Amino acid sequence: MTADELRQLIASSLACEHIEVEGDGRHWSALIVSAEFAGLRPIQRHQRVYKTLGARMHTDEVHALSMKTFTPDEWANQPH
Fold this sequence. Notes:
InterPro entries: BolA (IPR002634), BolA-like_sf (IPR036065), BolA/IbaG_stress_morph_reg (IPR050961). The protein has about 80 residues and is α+β, with helices and mostly antiparallel strands. The chain has one domain (about 5-70): 2-Layer Sandwich (GMP Synthetase, Chain A, domain 3), CATH 3.30.300.90. Helices cover about 35% and strands about 25% of the residues. The chain has a 3-stranded mixed beta sheet. β1 (about 20-25) and β2 form a beta hairpin. The protein is globular. The model has no long low-confidence stretch (mean pLDDT about 90).
C-alpha cells in the first residue's frame, strides 16, 4: 500500500478537510482533520479511523498507524 492509497482509503469513508499520510509501506503516521471528530475523545477518533481501514488493520497491509486527529476548529488553532 502506498501513502496515496491509504490517504484515499481514509478519505473515502471519513469526510476530511485535511489529511497527510507518511510511512514506509507498513508503519504509517497520519494527520487527519475532520468535522466528524467533534465531540469525540481521542480514542474514539482513532477508532473511527480504524473503522475506515477495516480488515487492513488486522493484516500486514497496515501494520501500524499513529495518528494526530483534529476538528477543523482545533486545526485552525494549531501552529503550522
